[in-house]
């Protein structure tokens, strides 16, 4: 009996010591920040680190019962039928800092103990949002990323974005703005509780910075057309269209596509003006001449031969006289007789006009046609003049260019007013071939025309085209009837 009492006394003292020693061993504190209106869960047993069920749970206490709505769920594991363990779900109803205390008593590990779980709860909410800017100006095609600043930053929230005019700009859930069209829109960023911030966004066009035309100067004749094109920079300009205009529509007119039509002689500027209000322009200086032409025609001649270059005149107006320079390739010259260049007028012109000519440089000859009295060259279209051209023996076969340039014409206007005009230069191709025996006119073949030319030469009638070296078929140094017979034999294939 005495031994039993001793054992009980020892156990009592040990238990008392243990309860005293273990009091507060499991006490824990926890600080947390939650968002107004958001629900959260408290699990005191888990946060205390207690793995066995207590025999009894004390009442919780809250520093402000009006700050939360609270619901609890009893946890009663099968192994502890007498457990009294609750998990709490709280929803904050006002901001501030509050204390939630839950107390447990019981035995853990065969020891009596008391545990207190204290929560320091800071309730916050979004009070303001700042986008950093209240207005924003962008060019079409540019974008922008908003970086909102939320107060309080600890608040749990989801931001939503909205554009008041999606045809101007759209914005995604990450605050990335994309421009779509010209105009103004309001971007609104809203937190879960309705707090918002706005930015007014203006999308402007990308203006034209420059215009380049495919030609800056052009010379055309009355009735001719010219196609102008405009290239606009930058390439991403919002409105790349231009309006075409003429500074003098009596000289030239232009349509909406940039096609120019020459109307009358003179000069004007054809302008392309940007339609976006940038004020950018570009211009082409157009010079229009009357459709008076002086052209030279292509010809074929063998080396060592003499041929005829035709100069044709087209007189839209009343031509009183004209002059031009003829530029010939090396080895090609204007034929001479008795120190005079061989050139003559055609059509009716020999009756009304005369020619003066001279050599003004290597390969360059000048011809001046003047009236006899005050008469004009009438009905001269297709007429003009002929010039005898000599091709040296050493000129290689091939194609060469002949040019009539520096052309001047004097035309008669109403009321005996005279005007000088300057038609464009004209070029012709001289094709030089190998000399063919019997081809005395140098046209590349032996025919009856050559027989006629030889007959004229023998009769001293001086044909316009005659190549003496291919006419002397028997090689006796003379052109006689014997040579002409041989040409006929060539034609007959004998």
Extract low-pLDDT stretches: 1-23
- Name the structural class: mainly beta
Oligomer: single chain
Shape: rod-shaped
- Please work out how many helical segments DSSP would assign: 6
The major β-sheet equals: 7 strands, mixed
Strand content: over 45%
Radius of gyration: 55 Å
Distance between the amino and carboxyl termini: 172 Å
Number of strands: 40
> Whole-number average pLDDT?
86
**Percent range of helical residues:** 10-25%
Overview of this protein structure:
This protein is mainly beta and 494 residues long. The strands form eleven sheets. Strands 28, 30, 35, 36, 38, 39 and 40 form a seven-stranded mixed sheet that branches. Helix 4 (448-458) packs antiparallel against helix 6 (481-492).
């Amino acid at each position: 009996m005495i031994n039993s009492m001793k054992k009980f006394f020892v156990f009592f003292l040990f238990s008392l010591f243990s309860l005293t020693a273990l009091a507060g061993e499991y006490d824990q504190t926890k600080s947390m920040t939650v968002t107004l209106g958001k629900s959260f869960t408290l699990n005191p047993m888990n946060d205390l680190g207690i793995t066995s069920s207590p025999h009894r749970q004390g009442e919780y206490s809250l520093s402000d019962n009006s700050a939360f709505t609270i619901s609890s769920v009893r946890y009663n594991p099968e192994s502890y039928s007498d457990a009294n363990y609750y998990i709490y779900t709280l929803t904050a109803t006002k901001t501030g800092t509050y204390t939630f205390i839950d107390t447990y008593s019981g035995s853990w590990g065969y020891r009596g103990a008391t545990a207190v779980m204290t929560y320091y709860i800071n309730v916050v909410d979004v009070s303001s949002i700042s986008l950093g800017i209240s207005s924003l100006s962008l060019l079409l095609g540019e974008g922008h990323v908003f970086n909102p600043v939320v107060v309080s930053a600890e608040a749990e929230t989801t931001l939503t974005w909205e554009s008041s005019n999606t045809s101007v700009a759209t914005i995604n859930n990450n605050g990335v703005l994309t421009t779509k069209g010209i105009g103004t829109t309001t971007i609104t960023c809203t937190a879960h509780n309705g707090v918002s911030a706005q930015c007014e966004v203006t999308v402007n066009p990308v203006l034209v910075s420059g215009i380049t035309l495919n030609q800056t100067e052009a010379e055309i004749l009355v009735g001719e057309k010219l196609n102008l094109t405009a290239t606009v920079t930058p390439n991403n300009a919002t409105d790349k269209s231009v309006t075409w205009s003429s500074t003098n529509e009596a000289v030239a007119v232009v349509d909406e596509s940039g096609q120019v039509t020459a109307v009358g002689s003179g000069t004007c500027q054809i302008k392309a003006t940007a339609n976006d209000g940038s004020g950018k322009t570009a211009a082409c200086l157009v010079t229009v001449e009357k459709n008076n032409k002086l052209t030279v025609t292509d010809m074929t001649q063998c080396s060592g031969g003499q041929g005829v270059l035709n100069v044709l005149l087209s007189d839209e107006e009343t031509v009183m006289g004209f002059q031009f320079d003829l530029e010939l390739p090396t080895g090609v010259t204007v034929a001479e007789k008795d120190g005079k260049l061989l050139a003559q007028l055609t059509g009716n012109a020999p009756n009304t006009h005369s020619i003066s000519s001279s050599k003004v440089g290597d390969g360059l000859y000048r011809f001046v046609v003047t009236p006899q009295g005050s008469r004009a060259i009438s009905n001269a279209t297709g007429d003009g003049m002929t010039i005898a051209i000599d091709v040296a023996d050493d000129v290689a076969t091939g194609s060469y260019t002949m040019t009539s340039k520096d052309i001047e014409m004097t035309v008669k206007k109403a009321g005996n007013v005279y005007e000088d005009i300057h038609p464009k230069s004209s070029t012709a191709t001289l094709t030089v071939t190998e000399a063919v025996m019997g081809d005395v006119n140098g046209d590349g073949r032996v025919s009856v025309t050559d027989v006629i030319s030889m007959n004229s030469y023998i009769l001293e009638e001086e044909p316009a085209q005659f190549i003496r070296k291919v006419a002397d078929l028997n090689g006796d140094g003379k052109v006689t009837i014997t040579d002409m017979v041989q040409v006929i034999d060539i034609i007959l294939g004998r």
